[in-house]
Amino acid sequence: MNEQASRRSQHPAWQALDKCYWDAQQVLRSSLFGRESSPLLLGLCCLKYVMDVGRAAGTLDLGGYQRFNLCDWEIPDHEAWWQLPTRPSTGFADHVHQVIRRVEESNTTLQGIFSRGLLQDLGGVSDEVLRHVIFLLSGVHLGDQFLDQSTSFADWLDYQIAASFYLGPGVWGHDVPPPMARFMVKLAGKQPFDSVMDPACGVGNLLVAAALPGISTRVTNPDLTILAQESDSRSWALAKFRLLAHGFVTARVEQGDSLSQPRLLSEDNQLLKADLVVTSPPFGGSLDIETLLERDVWGRFMEAKPARNASEAAFVMHALSCLTSKGKAILIVPFGLLFRSYEQVLRDFLVRTDTLEAVIRLPGRLWQTTALSCALIILNNAKRRDRKGHVLFIDPSLAGERPVTPSSPVFLNDQIMMKIQAIYESKDGIERGVSKMVSNEEILAADASLDPATYLGIGQMHAFKEKPGVMLTQARELEAARGTRIDEMDELLKDEFDI
After folding, report:
1. What is the Cα–Cα distance from 426 to 93, expressed in whole angstroms?
2. CATH 3.40.50.150 applies to domain 178-449
3. Half-sphere exposure for 486 (CA within 13 Å, toward CB)
């Protein structure tokens, strides 16, 4: 927990909600596994927050960057959280669903968040357990206790989501951990951008990192346009609600697959574009190539047709299609994309068009669902003059912080992240043995390999393996030089000691 989160956790409202939350968590775990109970319980907390603040008057200054009128959420007069536990246990889940439906009907910004997302699985919990959980959450009134600028319910929610990354596989799927999200946003640079997009946003960690002030060294644009899409309904709902809770009421968060059914479109059916596209797409997805190309009226994949088992390559091309003329894209991709033969056409295209700016190797197990090594690739439509015609490769022999459990994700420590950022932002981008600036011509000559090892010394060892004749010649030259040095040493010894 960082210093700011630690200070907020001492807030009375935070502590009161924490106690209710963990008491309810123990009750839920009698029916569900921990990784299943946490998302459901967070959804109930979000619903309670809506019902509590919907009755609060006035406005709330959320961190000083945007005022959010709580009256935008209207709760029907006959609905109140404290009334829910008084209902009979029989059919209790059905009654909660009716309340959810009425709340969403009264608030267009909330439509689908609970019914199709956060609380769609209430049927998996018995009526008695659900009634008990709602009774426990009645112990804190979020509309009263979070009307304080030193903290907010959104802060508490962000912290609980960050903590859930320690629960093991399957909590939030492909989503990137908050520390990694903040690091990726820092690589976007210090200049404010007008729009940010995540076409596979998960629960919104990258969006929150990009949108909130003080989370990086950038100057935040209070009028930032936020665009996102996510295929998983539960993750989509939580991402949308988090942005609403933080006050970004104009954020556009769509549900669906960005590759087969992009929904971030203008009125004339064109792809919306952003100054920053930052994303961690799911790995290993299969594609129906014929259908994908047939429906792709935007021509995203014309220059680099993806393979059937290369959804990551398709996301790269989609991100590039969504960039403005000055835009930058930062993506996490599996390490195999850097050298696999069936993705060479993508790499070749990125290098020839000079849109690839940097490749940064990362460790495996950065999040719960995969132990694969991965990499960051940075695309830039407005590369610096000294970077044009070149790609920066960085491989600092990363060592993540020790995971809490064997199944926990690896988090990059601050020292490593600062080192990578300093190299990336430096004028020449060179640190011996760690990074190298490579010309596009050299990359294309190496079959468009983007593996940093190909160009950082280790790659020379690979070249010898591929060319044993060259290796033998070099070995003979070294042996001859060694013999000459031995003869010279013998002569010196004779002269010195009269041997």
Report:
1. 57
2. yes
3. 6
On the question of pLDDT at 418 being above 70, the answer is yes
Average pLDDT, the chain: 80
Contact 332, 375 (CB under 8 A): yes
CA dist., res. 265 & res. 280, Å (int): 21
What are the tens digits of pLDDT across the range 54-82?
A: 765 444 444 433 334 444 677 776 677 87
CA angle 36, 38, 44 (to 5 degrees): 110
Structure-token pair, residue 245: 């809770």
Q: pLDDT: is 66 or 31 the higher one?
A: 31
421: its two tokens: 């950022």
| Paired strand residues for 391 | 438
How many C-beta neighbours within 10 Å does residue 440 have?
18
The residues, any chain, with a CB within 8 Å of residue 460's CB and separated by 6 or more, are none
H/E stretch holding 7 reads helix 3-9
- Distance CA(434)–CA(456), nearest Å, equals 7
The answer, as to whether pTM is greater than 0.90, is no
